[in-house]
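User: Reviewer 2 asked us to show a designed sequence for the structure in our supplementary figure. I'm pasting the structure tokens here. Could you produce the per-position amino acids so we can include them in the response letter?
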């Protein structure tokens, strides 16, 4: 994904593979990352805590990593606009 979204990192690369949602949120906030997840915990946190941390919630049931990548690639323009808007914290994609 780094070809379209430079700086993209997976939680495994950050040593956060077993971290809870709160720790991942804090890391994203500290490093200005946008969280992309199928986990509804981040959806709820975005409403409670708001920006600057941003969440892209993938609203798709069981699906492959390739399907998620396809969603992100196909919605690139929308994702970039979302990332630039300082007022928004949450974007749902399906």
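Assistant: Here is a per-position design you can include in the supplement:
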């Amino acid at each position: 994904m780094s070809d379209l979204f430079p700086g993209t990192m997976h939680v495994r690369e950050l040593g956060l593979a077993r971290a809870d949602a709160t720790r991942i949120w804090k890391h994203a906030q500290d490093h200005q990352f946008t969280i992309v997840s199928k986990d509804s915990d981040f959806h709820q946190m975005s409403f409670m805590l708001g920006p600057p941390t941003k969440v892209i919630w993938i609203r798709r049931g069981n699906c492959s990593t390739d399907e998620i990548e396809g969603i992100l690639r196909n919605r690139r323009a929308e994702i970039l606009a979302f990332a630039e808007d300082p007022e928004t914290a949450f974007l749902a994609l399906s």
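For the response letter, you might also mention the following. The chain has a mean pLDDT of 91. Residues 33 and 53 are 7 Å apart (CA to CA).
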